[in-house]
Automatic annotation (TrEMBL):
Summary of the function given for this chain in its UniProt record: Poorly processive, error-prone DNA polymerase involved in untargeted mutagenesis. Copies undamaged DNA at stalled replication forks, which arise in vivo from mismatched or misaligned primer ends. These misaligned primers can be extended by PolIV. Exhibits no 3'-5' exonuclease (proofreading) activity. May be involved in translesional synthesis, in conjunction with the beta clamp from PolIII.
Descriptive protein name: DNA polymerase IV
Active site (catalytic residues): 108
PANTHER family referenced in this protein's UniProt entry, alphabetically: DNA POLYMERASE KAPPA, DNA REPAIR POLYMERASE UMUC / TRANSFERASE FAMILY MEMBER
The keyword ATP-binding belongs to this UniProt entry's keyword annotation: no
One Gene Ontology molecular-function label: DNA-directed DNA polymerase activity
Organism field: Hymenobacter ruricola
Domain UmuC: 9-189
EC number: 2.7.7.7
Required cofactor(s): Mg(2+)
Sequence similarity: Belongs to the DNA polymerase type-Y family.
Length: 359
């Protein structure tokens, strides 16, 4: 493709995905403030319905804080198997239009539809058709951002939420970015936004006024990226089916763990979830890492690599047990445990099974 020819990129983002699935499957939850997650003392909100968001409830918020903001909040446990199945349905719809699908998470993805399977000239029409098909097949709504690069498409998808879409055309890009607060930029987190504000950089226009040398001095390698997006430039391609580098699972406990047997019991659900992924995907790994967060939030990891792939769940459990044994005597109670498998054989799925990545 001619590099001077604008690309047509769509960012599709499901609306309050986990919570919307629960409201779809449980009619008694519709129209009510719902949080997917645990209501226990150390629980965390995984997703919040739009009714809950009106009270300030957000994902990653501690459950106790969410309940303080919305005493009527209804907690439901997550059903990841269901969310993954719905995600596969959505991914199949995307694949009707383009093979260039870059999953970001279960509920969002980038699509490059510059050259699409339907031979449609309008990315806006494609986004509209995809959203209509998602609604018809899953009874769920999605929002879309359409633009000539990933950065702008991501920003645009937030403009008509829920259940809408927004277009930023090539001639609109620079002006669109200039008026935005830097905290709205994808890739600029709260800490970076605060530092930019301290430097007198509050908007895209302020960021655009800085030299690339100054931004690199202040923000390192990311400075060049910030210099580009302030000018609405983003040349990152949509990368289809990126290979995973690791798979992991972790749990936070209602009470601190101190006994060896309790730590093993606390690890078991994470071990089972990681191995379930290995069985489903046909992917194995060589390096096992146990993550430990203590009661005072200090975090450590312990890892071990084997010559070949971990062959079964029993071996994974044994390595985790030996890594935990090395932590004793514990200096303090443990509030979180996690297991990660890395050095994956993503290029050679086990037992001849085809690797597929869900959206």
């Amino acid at each position: 493709m001619n590099p001077d020819t604008p690309r047509k990129i769509i960012h599709l983002d499901m609306d309050a995905f986990y919570a919307s699935v629960e409201q779809r499957d449980h009619p008694e939850l519709r129209g009510k403030p719902v949080a997917v997650g645990g209501a226990r003392e150390r629980g965390v909100v995984a997703a919040a319905s739009y009714e809950a968001r009106q009270f300030g409830v957000r994902s990653a918020m501690p459950s106790v804080t969410a309940l303080r903001k919305c005493p009527a909040l209804l907690f439901v446990p997550p059903r990841f198997a269901v969310y993954k199945e719905v995600s596969r349905q959505i991914r199949a719809i995307f694949a009707e239009y383009t093979p260039l699908i870059e999953p970001v998470s279960l509920d969002e993805a980038y699509l490059d539809v510059t050259h699409n399977l339907k031979q449609l000239a309008s990315a806006t029409q494609i986004a509209r058709e995809i959203r209509a098909k998602i609604l018809a097949e899953t009874q769920l709504t999605a929002s879309a951002g359409i633009s000539y690069n990933k950065f702008l498409a991501k920003l645009a998808s937030d403009y008509r939420k829920p259940n809408g879409q927004f277009v930023v055309r090539p001639e609109q890009g620079p002006a669109f970015v200039e008026g935005l607060a830097v905290g709205q930029f994808h890739g600029v987190g709260p800490v970076t936004a605060a530092k930019m504000n301290q430097l007198g950089i509050f908007t895209g226009a302020d960021l655009r006024a800085q030299t690339v040398e100054f931004l690199q001095q202040q923000f390192g390698k990311a400075g060049r990226y910030y210099h580009a997006i302030a000018r609405a430039e983003d040349h990152r391609p949509v990368v289809a089916d990126r290979l995973r580098k690791s798979v992991g699972s972790e749990n936070t406990f209602a009470h601190d763990l101190n006994a060896f047997a309790d730590l093993l019991d606390g690890l078991r659900p994470s071990i089972e979830e990681v191995w379930e992924y290995c069985q489903r995907s046909g992917i194995l790994g060589r390096t096992v890492t146990v993550k430990v967060k203590f009661a005072d939030f200090q975090q450590i990891t312990r890892s071990r690599s084997s010559v070949g792939p971990i062959p079964n769940q029993g071996v994974l459990e044994r390595i985790c047990r030996e890594l935990v044994e090395g932590l004793f005597p514990l200096p303090k109670g443990v509030r979180l445990l996690g297991v990660t498998l890395s050095n994956l054989n993503t290029g050679q799925p086990a037992a001849g099974r085809q690797l597929t990545l869900s959206f």
